[in-house]
Specification:
The chain is an all-alpha fold. The radius of gyration is 15 Å and the shape is globular.
C-alpha cells in the first residue's frame, strides 16, 4: 500500500503543474491582452509554479526538493538568469518542467513575480 503513495503524490503534483484552465486558453489564444495585476500574477505563480518551486521560489516544496530545483531567490541565480531566459523556460519547459501556454502579459507577470523573490 505505501509503495503507491509516493507515485500517486508525484502524479497528482504533475497534473497540477500541467493543468490547462479555460482562462489560460482564452488568453494564450489571443484573448485578453491586458496587463496582469500583482495579485493575479501571484495567483498564477501559486497555481502554475509553487507546487514545484515553492511559495517563494526556493525550490523547497516536497517535489522541488526531490527534483533538486534551483533556488530562484538567490542573488547568483537572479543575476545570471535574464528575463528572456525565464520566459523561454516558461514557454518551452526544461527537464521535468512542462511548457506553459500563457499570454505575453501572463509570462511577463510571472517573470516580475520571480524577480520579486530577490
Amino acid at each position: 500500500m505505501t509503495r503507491w503513495i509516493v507515485p500517486s503524490l508525484f502524479l497528482t503534483l504533475f497534473i497540477g503543474c500541467t493543468h490547462d484552465s479555460a482562462k489560460d486558453k482564452s488568453t494564450s489564444e489571443g484573448g485578453d491582452s491586458q496587463p496582469i495585476t500583482e495579485t493575479e500574477a501571484a495567483n498564477l505563480y501559486s497555481i502554475r509554479c509553487a507546487s514545484c518551486h515553492g511559495a517563494e521560489g526556493k525550490g523547497d516544496s516536497p517535489l522541488g526538493r526531490t527534483l533538486h530545483l534551483s533556488d530562484l531567490s538567490t542573488r547568483e541565480w537572479q543575476e545570471k538568469t535574464s528575463d528572456k531566459d525565464i520566459e523561454k523556460v516558461i514557454v518551452q519547459g526544461r527537464g521535468q518542467m512542462p511548457a506553459f501556454k500563457l499570454s505575453e502579459p501572463e509570462r511577463k507577470a510571472l517573470v516580475k513575480t520571480i524577480r520579486s523573490f530577490r
